[in-house]
Design brief:
homodimer; about 350 residues; alpha/beta; 12 helices; Rossmann fold; about 40% helix; Dihydrodipicolinate Reductase, domain 2
Chain lengths: ~350, ~350
């Protein structure tokens, strides 16, 4: 049995779901993989939960941030570097802070300190990788550490694993994805006849869309995921400004419904394609009209999907994967297991 | 750069496609993975092609078996054990002999000798694993060797990788697959109004169906793939006789066409499901009527697909992947790379 210390950054729904999942899965993970993951710290901006015993973190209380300071394990003023260095190499940072796509903070600083301290990193948060992909990959490689981010690229829908493991040795010639569940839900409802506003309100009512949905419907969430997938799988070094992005807000009111009546489907498609010049890749997010022979035509509602076009293996399409915090938590656990498990 | 010696068993379309592919991909694999795969022997029943230089094997000549004895590298009477032992540990057997689902031979003996000699194994051939799954997995684990068989479980459609890597830590609660392209092609054509006989003849005309199609249309090819996927992913130890198999030959002539008219689709579905008793798994292959909400409903023609239902990640579906010898060869190369590449 190998015991792996975990430091958790962020204290929102995903990190709490991860902690709960780890408790539920403990026995199974130990039996199947010979691994024991122990949360030794939860890192916040102004202190840490820290104990010499593995921490158990329950579901979110009403006022999480006020309650944390009453926790007997709360260490005000304790910083992330106070944890990594004394613990030695080989633990793993599980990064779940909110994504800031411009600065990458606070995740970026956390990830850098972890890698520099000889810790591996799995992250559910896109910000740091979008802002500083090459820097972080280079740092990880230089330190001999793993940096995995399935949770930042469509979560439980496997995208990176498939491109990097299942398609190893094949040349990827194109990528097309429906990478944002919220906008796909809205488009599906618009195809059924709802207006954009009605569909958005319905999505917000179900908790599918955020109160401010602009990242999702504006295409930026899809663009961030697309560029991470491209950078990881195509050895590119794109930033967010390299992606041509248009969202679904400007579509004519009856565009999706008219398309549906004509047997077609409107999707917010995120695409990576070789440039016509033959050199380099173009990245684009925008509403696209698919006909029913397209492998993503039938991906509806909050479902996501991705198609990889290859030279030797044909085209491989994945659809499904749970999008909620529990799905994201399961994706973090998956990346963790794959870092530490024995080869098979 | 790490050089990996390869011994190839079988001299048919897949092993030749593999050799060709290796030549084409050499520079890319060296650059991307730091790996150089060199074919040092092709093992036949009555001798080996063997040279101290890496072998290059071209496309199949008209009369392959007669020509091989004229090759300057032909060593009559040389046996597989003459290759592994002197070469030391750490090479890889690439097993491409025809599948005998009952005895597993000749692949079974080749794989045992390879593992006992400290060689890893990747195989495109189902026979040995269907006949002796537990024995081979136990032997591989005891020797600390990898035994990979993506090529035996729907080839370029990633099945094992997704279950073992992308769904690591999740509990698989059910598997459903369309694992045989020939029978799916025939069913697709029958849905369009052809009779079974017409559809089969068309498939044979295109080279999709074998002259003797009984393994494909009888469900045995699907059953073999299903039990390998189940044994690998569910830690079971099933043999072919544990799978309830019915094929597509006994379907009423207009069954698929009537289903299509009613908005449904007939698929030869391979399923693993928990037994109603709550203990253990049931495996079944048989024609199933799917409605259009099923994720495999739209898998038509020679395409394959698989759905994994999990506890934490929802349901994940894969479709596509090339089925021809080149697709199988690319799948062998993928498994090879994943055995020897550095962790990432």
């Amino acid at each position: 049995m190998r015991t792996v210390p975990i430091a958790l950054t962020g204290f929102g729904n995903v990190s709490r779901a991860f902690s709960t999942l780890l408790g539920e899965k403990r026995a199974g993970v130990e039996r199947r993989y010979g691994l024991r993951f122990e949360i030794m710290a939860v890192v916040m901006a102004d202190g840490c939960l820290f104990s010499n015993e593995p921490l158990e973190i329950g579901p979110a209380p009403e006022k999480a941030s006020r309650q944390i300071e009453k926790d007997p394990a709360w260490r005000p003023g304790m910083r992330i570097s106070d944890i990594f260095k004394p613990a030695g190499r080989g633990g793993c940072l599980v990064e779940c802070t909110p994504s800031d796509l411009k600065t990458g903070e606070p995740g970026l600083s956390y990830i850098v300190i972890a890698l520099e301290s000889g810790w591996n990193v799995v992250t559910a948060s896109k910000g740091a990788l979008v802002a500083a992909f090459r820097k972080l990959k280079t740092l990880a490689a230089g330190q001999g550490m793993s940096l995995k981010f399935s949770g930042a690229t469509a979560a439980a829908l496997p995208t990176l694993d498939v491109a990097l493991v299942s398609l190893a040795g094949a040349d990827i010639e194109g990528i097309q994805g429906i990478l944002n569940g919220t906008s796909n839900y809205i488009l599906t409802k618009m195809a059924e006849g709802l207006s954009y506003r009605q569909a958005l309100q319905e999505a917000q009512g179900w908790g599918i869309a955020e109160p401010d949905p602009s990242d999702d419907v504006g295409g930026w969430d899809s663009a961030a995921k697309l560029l991470l997938i491209a950078n990881a799988c195509l050895d590119t070094d794109f930033g967010l400004s390299d992606v041509r992005v248009s969202g679904i807000t400007g579509l004519p009111a009856d565009y999706a419904a008219k398309a549906a009546a004509a047997g077609k489907s409107v999707k917010l498609l995120a695409s990576a394609f070789p440039k016509k010049s033959g050199r380099g890749w173009g990245l684009e997010v925008g509403p696209s009209l698919l006909d029913d022979s397209h492998p993503l035509f039938h991906v509806n509602g909050t479902e996501k999907g991705i198609t990889f076009i290859t030279d030797t293996m044909g085209s491989v399409t994945l659809t499904g994967g749970r999008s909620n915090p529990r799905g994201a938590a399961a994706t973090l656990l998956k990346d963790l297991i794959n870092i530490y498990r024995d080869p098979f």
